[in-house]
Description:
Blueprint: E1 7-14, E2 19-27, E3 30-39, H1 47-50, H2 55-75, E4 79-84, H3 86-90, H4 94-105, E5 110-111, H5 114-128, E6 134-139, E7 144-150, E8 153-154, E9 158-160, H6 164-167, H7 176-188, E10 198-202, H8 204-217, E11 228-230, H9 231-242, H10 246-250, H11 257-277, E12 281-285, H12 289-297, H13 300-303, H14 307-319, H15 325-337, H16 348-357, H17 370-380, H18 388-402, H19 411-417, H20 420-440, H21 444-447, E13 450-454, E14 458-463, H22 468-471, H23 474-486, E15 490-494
Parallel strand pairs: 1-4, 4-5, 6-10, 10-12, 14-15
Antiparallel strand pairs: 1-2, 2-3, 6-7, 7-8, 7-9, 11-12, 13-14
Helix pairs in contact: 2-4, 5-12, 7-11, 8-9, 8-11, 9-11, 14-16, 15-16, 15-20, 17-18, 18-20, 20-23
Amino acid sequence: MPFQAPRDAAVIDIGSNSVRLVVYRLEGRAIWTVFNEKVLAGLGRDLAKTRRLAPDGVIQTLQALKRFRAVLEAVNPAETFAVATAAARDAEDGPDFIARVKAETGFSVRVLTGEEEAHYAAVGVLAGAPDAEGVVGDLGGASLELIRLNATGAEQGVTLPLGPFSLASPGAGFDAERARRLARERISAVAADFKTDTFHAVGGAWRNLALLHMRLSGYPLHVVHQYEIPANEALEAARLVAHQSRSSLERIEGMSKKRSETLPYAAVVLETLIEQLSLKRIEISAYGVREGLLFEAMPPRVRGLDPLIEGCTALGARQGVADDLGVALDAWITPAFRTLPPLFGERDGILVSAACRLSDVGARLHPDHRADLVFEQVLRAPIAGQTHAERCFLAVAAHARHATNFHPPELRTLERLLDPAQLKRARALGAAMRLACDLSGRSPSLLVHSRLTLDKNHLILAAEPGFADLLLGEQTSKRANTAAQHLNLKSKIITG
């Protein structure tokens, strides 16, 4: 599918704890965050005690929305979604608040039901990881939405009063035993319907728990999306947080004061979910309700595309200089690499296609620094649909595309997340991309006159009659030798 012209879309999300504006750049299936502003207004802070919205939270939310209105008038996105969740849904004065928002800011806010919130959270998880199965849990300030994912999509979801504001003891500090008792009572009522191996955690509190686990375990790649935690390790981290004082949590690097107030409740809920749902692993999703709204609004043919390939296509199109180079490289390299033993199961072909789309990233950078800069960018690019190991694989391939000597910036990270065979295959793929680009001058129209194949002993490069002298020079031979060595093969050049 050809690269699509970008357009902007915005989501205003009025939650129980925060109100947020996110402006996205949509490039076909690819979703990029270009502006993200959050105010921790605590709109639902008083729900458990008064059943009404917090007065100061209402004032802060309205102030934030007026600012968001000014931003959106300047940005002028193609479409804007404005939604509110548990606080506005459950508060007695919720309808009055929504009417006031309309009168004072002009925003027509859609109040999502609990089932709708669960649905959009699940759709958001699928937008970021289309093969996801298990149970999605979206934890907000006042509620937890649970919904099951299977091969056909999302099932019916439920909402439970398990957010920090619903578990807090009115007028008192964090009471772990009370929170744990309420969590067990409320989750046990639905636990039989949501037992699963994999739990997809959505929400800022659980993202903070994941960052804390990264620090505790010395994990080298601080990318939250699709970060996996074994359930036993997640349980240890949750129990650790639940036993910390607020002052101790505030001393953690990057932990805000307001987040430290709510994090122990999130830890107790996760602890209870692990125990009652028989979870084996936790996978963090950086995508949720907001991305679910955007994804569901896309045409079905766009939703069916692979997010990794589409994200890499968009990144390559923005930074490259040779149109359609990635597609041409994919057609040239994939048939040969398809004959190799798979190292990522069914994902090998997707990774080759994605890497080819990144082949021109770095074309505008200084050649002395290009390989390292491209490596860092690919490793941490906010592109969905890839595990952390796959991020490393693509970063190595992108580095090898630009450099023969392999001295990447974060070798420790690579050695922890890739096995030696995967690391070597990534270097071979990068070398094959470099071979193709140097052979053709990054021109798809020249590349089609040559062919790459592999047999048991050789990497074979051949040119069509009349093109051997134009394509198969000394530089080409050197590049072919390098690619062959990474595959434990010898190169063979066929000139006639």
